[in-house]
Amino acid sequence: MAVTLEVAGVGKDFLIPVIDSVSFSVEAGEFVCLLGPNGCGKTTLLRIVGGLEPPTRGTVTLGGEPVVGSGRHTRKVGVVFQEDRLLPWMTLRENVELVQKPLGIDGAARRATAARYLALVGLAGFEDYHPARVSGGMRQRAAIARALAVEPDLLLMDEPFGALDAQNRRIMQNEVRRIWRETGRTILFVTHAIEEAVAIGTTLVMLSARPSRIRELVRNDGRVERSKLIDGLNTMIMEEVERQQRSAPA
Amino acid sequence: MLSAGRWAARLHLPTLAVAGVVVAGWVLLSWRYGAFVLPSPLAVLHGLVEIVRSGEVWTHTGASLGRIAVGFGGAIVVALALALAAFVSRTARGVVHDALAVLNATSVFVWIVVSIIWFGLSSWAPIFTTFMITLPVVASTLVEGVESVDRRLLEMGDVYRLSGRQKFAAIVVPSTVPYLVAGMKVGFGLALKVSVVAEIFGVTSGIGYVMNYSREILATQMVFVWALVMILVMLAIDSLVFDPMARRLARWR
């Protein structure tokens, strides 16, 4: 079941400090969008939360259990990357079945779960297609189905629609919102598009320029009018972009 | 019904035209210099029919292919082991790279002479030569394949906690198999060419032996016949073994 995510004083240095110190917590069932200027370490932060990279400072706990680099914890995390990362030699169904193998689920149940989540993301009838035979949007849907198939405590999404055209992007945003409502998963979603974040997130975390801290944490509960929220966030992000450019080595 | 154009494409009509010119030139040269230097196409065809009828073609081709199967097969097995080592350990990868560079730089003739010294006049001489020459070719393509496994897919495997064995079976093997097939195709061509050379020394069967023997008894047309047999074997194995393999691999593309 969904659990609480605690990010406490997390920082990361790659020669220079990229993330200074970031702390926030995500309650079970929340849809958090991580925003910020390009290059502020959004993806790095997501990778640290997912246990793909160790933080230089700070801790990440998921349901009270520490998450460490290389992902040695018992909590289940699903990740949707910028690229679909489907195995091209496997059908969509086989891709979704594969990730359930380490969970010790038997073949028939794996198949049923794969069919269920592929249908949930709108891919019923395409189960036996190879990734090369379907569109980019459909591949990203399959990647979402794969992430859901492990029944994750936390679902991480790293600009999953970055490669899609505007129309498909909007369709996928609605889909993710629907999937979130239907499954009740806790989602951490990285994006640089403010409209996207405001359209789908329940909590918006705006990071500052490098070395990043939290610039603003907004509850997107409809109390602030959408257009005002978007304007405010846009102003903020422009300030941060300018700050990053000023501090950038010439 | 196929249109005339499709038939032309299927029959490689321009290639046939060039072949016709070559044969015509061949006939003229043969007529000018005599059958000992260059036997006529008809004599070669006649010789081919003769060895097929007598069954000699199968004896010698079989002997050559048998040696290739052992030498080249051994090379594939060792190449797989080397590629696995290179995948598992970074240190091993460096050693394998260096060793293959040295093997690649070694002449065929070195192995022929050395194998005669070591194994005497036996089948093991061409087998060993074939092994030593094809090993670096197959192994380098395999190691390249192992190195080009998409790290992002392996990371995906880590996210979903696939075990080492599961990652190996689901990610590493399928992305390396095309390299294996490519390496085998090139390696087999090399194996056929090299083993035949090694057969000139010390064995009494095989295409290389019989070609050299034909030269000694001044049966020049038989040299050409056996060369033709070699070419046909190569083409047949390409279209019956390697091309279907490559097509099978391309299914999901």
Please explain how this structure is put together:
- The complex is a heterodimer of chains A (250) and B (253).
- In chain A, 36% of the residues lie in helices and 23% in strands.
- With 250 residues, chain A is of the alpha/beta class.
- In chain A, the strands form 2 sheets. Chain A has a 6-stranded mixed sheet, with helices on both faces. In chain A, strands 2-1-4-5 form a 4-stranded antiparallel sheet, with helices on one face.
- The model of chain A has no long low-confidence stretch (mean pLDDT 87).
- By secondary structure, chain B is mainly α.
- Chain B has one domain: MetI-like fold.
- Chain B is built from 11 helices and no strands.
- In chain B, helix 7 packs antiparallel against helix 9.
- Chain B starts with a helix and ends with a helix.
- The mean pLDDT of chain B is 91.
- Classes of the chains: A alpha/beta (250), B mainly alpha (253).
- The interface between A and B is medium-sized, with 22 and 17 residues.
The value of Rg of chain B in angstroms is 23 Å
Averaged pLDDT of chain A:
87
Query: Regions of chain A with pLDDT < 50 over 5+ consecutive residues?
Result: none
Low-pLDDT ranges of chain B = none
Strand content of chain B: under 5%
Largest beta sheet: strand ordering of chain A: 6-7-8-3-9-10
Query: Largest interface here, residues on each chain?
Result: A-B, 22 and 17 residues
Task: Please tell me what the overall shape of chain B is.
Answer: globular
First-residue to last-residue Cα separation of chain A: 49 Å
Structural class of chain B: mainly alpha
How would you characterize the largest beta sheet of chain A? 6 strands, mixed
Question: Can you summarize the main beta sheet of chain B?
Answer: none
- The CATH homologous superfamily of chain B corresponds to MetI-like
Q: What is the CA-CA span between the terminal residues of chain B?
A: 29 Å
User: What fold name stands as the CATH topology of chain B?
Assistant: MetI-like fold
How large is the count of helical segments of chain B?
Answer: 11
